[in-house]
Design goal:
CATH superfamily: Jelly Rolls
Mean pLDDT: 91
Largest sheet: 8 strands, antiparallel
Structural class: mainly beta
Number of helices: 1
CATH topology: Jelly Rolls
Number of strands: 26
Distance between the termini: 24 Å
Order of helices and strands: EEEEEEEEEEEEEEEEEEEEEEEEEEH
Length: 321
């Protein structure tokens, strides 16, 4: 998914200097952003207070939206580099096209994983006809320097491992959890899981104390380590945890995101993850001139133009502001 804001704000992310090395309970509020023609998202990362959780560097939550009489998601072809995109749905479908020739409809609880590597372009749209409701999350994972120039690729995994306990059903999106491992390709130690909590659930989920974690609420009201987390908000949990208490007084669903703190500093601007102003500038030029990022075939509409770069060089900001 693309960052469609007309004035893209650069940010410097990564580095371990701002990692909270102990358990915390930091509730992050979303910023509302218009995405395409009719979809509004709640952006949790980058946030005014925190920019990364492990290698997770971008989190949008959207819906549930009634799109029965709307076009739904319509994101024109746009570029990416230096990251992976994770498409995750609870309701609806998203049709993915990219410059490697991939054409795939992603459905609820299926993993659509695109590794941009050195350069890729893609589009995302609600199929025609489409389901009445659209509800999901779009996330990015930053690639480490050793792998960020890899060849672009798209993966679709319709069957994913599950972890269950009384009152809990967890679908493993990426990484490993409680002995289960996702088939999705990862480049740093991390985890992403979709947790469904039944009415009255009171469980403790095992965690890796070397990871930092956050929990994104998708629906219902879950109490995460005693903190009520409402849909569209995210609770940052820090590091040093061996387990996570979860409780729900009604049916609820959350996403667990975590990973080893990302060591490298990186620059995020628009849909690019790089390491310097010059690298971002070159990527924008390549997209504008139609080189490097390839062509998305079959989308009915023009590609997305790049916003203007800021008038000053990108400055480091660290993991938190």
């Amino acid at each position: 998914m693309s960052n469609l804001e007309r004035e893209a704000v650069p940010s410097r992310c990564g580095g371990r200097g701002f990692v909270v090395a102990e358990p915390v309970r930091e509730l992050l509020s979303p910023r509302r952003v218009k995405l395409g023609e009719s979809t509004e998202v709640r952006r949790l990362l980058p946030n005014l207070g925190r920019r990364m959780v492990g290698a997770w560097c971008f989190v949008d939550h959207y819906g549930p939206d009634d799109i029965a009489d709307e076009p739904g998601m319509q994101v024109p072809p746009h570029p990416h580099m230096g990251l992976q995109t994770v498409s995750w749905l609870h309701d609806g479908e998203v049709l993915h096209r990219d410059s490697t020739g991939s054409l795939q409809t992603v459905r609820p609880r299926e993993l659509g994983l695109m590794t941009s590597g050195r350069a890729i372009s893609h589009s995302e749209e609600s199929p025609r006809p489409h389901a009445r409701y659209l509800h999901g999350a779009q996330l990015w994972v930053a690639l480490p320097d050793a792998d960020r120039h890899t060849a672009p690729r798209f993966e679709h995994h319709a069957e994913l491992p599950r972890v269950t306990a009384p009152g809990l059903s967890a679908t493993l999106i990426l990484g490993g959890l409680d002995g289960a491992t996702s088939p999705g390709t990862t480049y740093t130690p991390l985890v992403g899981a979709d947790l469904t909590l039944a009415d009255g659930a009171d469980v403790r989920l095992p965690l890796d104390p070397d990871f930092e974690y956050a929990v994104l609420s998708m629906s219902g009201e879950a109490h995460v380590d005693g903190v009520p987390v409402l849909p569209g908000s995210m609770l940052y949990l820090g590091c040093g945890r061996t387990e996570l208490p979860l409780r729900a007084e009604s049916n609820a669903s959350v996403m667990l995101l975590g990973g080893e703190p990302f060591e490298e500093e990186l620059v995020m601007w628009w849909n690019f993850v790089g390491r310097s102003h010059e690298e971002i500038e070159q990527a924008r030029s390549d997209w504008t001139t139609g080189t490097r990022f390839g062509e998305v075939k079959g989308y009915d509409g023009p590609p997305l133009p790049a916003p203007q770069l800021p008038p000053v060089a990108l400055k480091p900001r660290g993991r938190v502001r």
